[in-house]
Amino acid sequence: MPTIDIDKQELFDYLGNQFDTASFRELCFEFGIELEEDSSEKGQLAEGERAQLKIDIPANRYDLLCFEGVSRALGVFLRREDPPTYKVVPAAEPHRITVSAECAQVRPFVVGAVLRGVTLTAERYQSFIDLQDKLHHNLCKKRELVSIGTHDLDTVEGPFTYEAQRPEDIQFVPLNQTESMNGRRVIEFYEDDQHIKKFLHIIRDSPVYPVVYDAKRRVMSLPPLINSEHSKISLDTRNILIEITATDLTKVNMTLNILVTMFSKYCNEPFTVEPVEVVYPDGKKFVYPELEQRLMATTGEYLNGIVGIEKSNDEISELLKKMSLEAEVQGDKINVKLPATRPDILQECDIAEDLAIAFGYNRIPRVQNNEATVAAPHPLNKLSDIVRREIALAGWTEALTLSLCSHDNNFAHLRRKDNGDEVVVLENPKSSENQICRTLLLPGLLKTVCENKRYALPLRVFEVSDVVLKNAAVERGAQNQRHACALYASNEARFEIVQGLLDEVMKSLNVVSVVEANKGVRYCLEEADIPTYLPGRGANVMLINEDGSSLELGTIGILHPE
Predict the structure, then answer these.
(1) DSSP assignments along 357-380, one per residue
(2) Three-state DSSP state, 319
(3) At a CB cut-off of 8 Å and minimum separation 6, what does 237 contact?
(4) For a designed S-S bond to 345, which of 51, 231, 350, 543 qualifies (C-beta 3.0 to 4.6 A apart)?
(5) Cα-trace Rg, the chain
(6) Secondary structure of the chain: what % helix, strand, coil (to 5)?
């Protein structure tokens, strides 16, 4: 959950000085955010230091990551102001960014916008920088997906180009530096920088680096690392060019919309933005930002049912205005216009959540559930408990192992081959020990025995848990399957002990061995050549149905020493 620091007096002044810390904490709770700390309560403010409010923001509310967003949202919530209307004002000659084909190798997308006639103060400038940092660490996934560049438009000339060049061919003075560097030198220079070094890996090994030029071939930024000193923004800046590069087109549009809606407030004409045209190598042209409201239809019946209140459509429409949502009633339907600041609203249930906040969670009437219900264990869990109890009563110790393991532990170390249609592989594993979702419980039990060699033999351990298998027939492409596994470790092979445990478990499930019965549901061991086990010491456990058909339940055997 992101946390932001806001000047206490500035926010209270904006809200009409009607709050103290206690009442503001209550307001935050009602709105769905949390006041974590008021620095003035500590009583340790230095002379001239202003009190700060530390506020926890929901992870999906990117519009609340700065003073402008929080103050505006709370002002609307308290009905002190109306939600603003954001407008894209076409320019006589809109600025253009032309994308080269080589950018597809590193960061293929770019968007842009212009804030015209901006008035900056030290506080506004710092808020502008802080919002970019918050977006970089949350929505932009630490610049992996999106990287923001902001420039003093009066120091550069359009049209602009977004290119991918060899590092040696890029030459510029980075932000707040005096030395001119090429791309390689920039990487070396920032290796020890506590802030920039965290992003160097994104392009370090790329044969080409992304770079933004103006019409005079002056470097404006080297995304996703740093901007140029030449186009640096200061308190005297009046026109701001925003260019944002990305690997994800959805995320980059969300980032641009949040940035311009928050700070277009300080333009000569508040809440207006000038567009930027982006031209791609195939000739396609796009104009950004896209600030049009999205339309989502819902009904009062649905919203009332979700929240647990009884309000007319007109009353619901008025309540949604407190959450900066404009709604129009058309018969039984409510058409909700979603502003560019609210990409978090994806479904009707999200509107219902905002309605609950606007109405007040504490005001929702409590209603007793008069429906009679009867609880019962899930059949699979009931079966698992029976198996688990029988094995434990036989003197075995239960283990609970990790559901992720290495590929070798699941295959090579068990003398098994990966056929490609069984295992779910993690795309970006954090370590070699967590590469795949296990398809067997055996690797985890072997590791358990390995970590407990200091105990006297024999060791009897078991586990009843889920494994994950690929399944193209289901929507998600994979499914969980409940397995049971028992492992006996000793200095001599005691196949009969594990076989006896199997017999006890099967009897508890009313399934007897073929040795004891020749009809009905029964089970048997069928010799099989299983690479995990010693030759001639492995078998399949087969279930024989009343009609004579058989089903393989699992395997049993003595593990191969390899």
Answers:
(1) HHH-GGGSPP------------HH
(2) helix
(3) 118, 120, 152, 154
(4) 350
(5) 32
(6) 30, 30, 40
Q: Tell which residue, 344, 340, 239, 346, has the closest CA to residue 290.
A: 340
pLDDT (tens digit, 9 = 90+) per residue, 92-119?
A: 888 999 999 999 999 999 999 999 999 9
* CB-CB contact of 214 with 201 (8 Å): no
Q: How many residues does the chain have?
A: 562
- Report whether 479 contacts 449 (CB < 8 A): no
Structure token pair of residue 65: 């990551």
Which of these, 332, 293, 300, 294, lies nearest to 316 by C-alpha position? 300
Strands, E assignment, 432-520: 436-437, 459-470, 478-489, 512-513
* H helix count then E strand count, the chain: 13, 28
pTM, rounded to two decimals:
0.71
CA–CA distance from 405 to each of 41, 398, 429, 437 (Å)?
Answer: 48, 19, 10, 6
Q: Is 10 exposed, middle or buried (0-12, 13-18, 19+ CB in 10 A)?
A: middle
Distance CA 332, CA 366 (A): 26
Q: pLDDT digit string (tens) for 116-146?
A: 999 999 999 999 999 999 999 988 999 999 9
State both tokens at 151.
């420039």
Q: Between the CA of residue 306 and those of 298, 333, 355, 364, what are the distances in Å?
A: 12, 16, 10, 11
Say whether the peptide bond before residue 224 is cis (omega within 30 degrees of 0): yes
Give the CA distances from residue 397 to residues 14, 390, 444, 465, 485, in Å, rounded to whole numbers and listed in that order.
63, 11, 14, 14, 12
What contacts 540, CB < 8 A, 6 or more positions away? 525, 526, 528, 530, 552, 554, 555
Closest to 156 in 3D by CA, of 225, 221, 252: 221
Exposure string for 339-359, b = 16+ CB within 10 A, e = fewer:
bbbbbbbeebebbbbbbbbbb
Q: Which residues contact 131 (CB under 8 A, 6 or more apart)?
A: 65, 66, 68, 258, 259, 262, 263
- Spell out the residues 6+ positions from residue 514 whose beta carbon is closer than 8 angstroms to its own: 522, 523, 524, 544
pLDDT confidence of residue 43: 67
Is the pLDDT reported for residue 494 higher than 90?
no
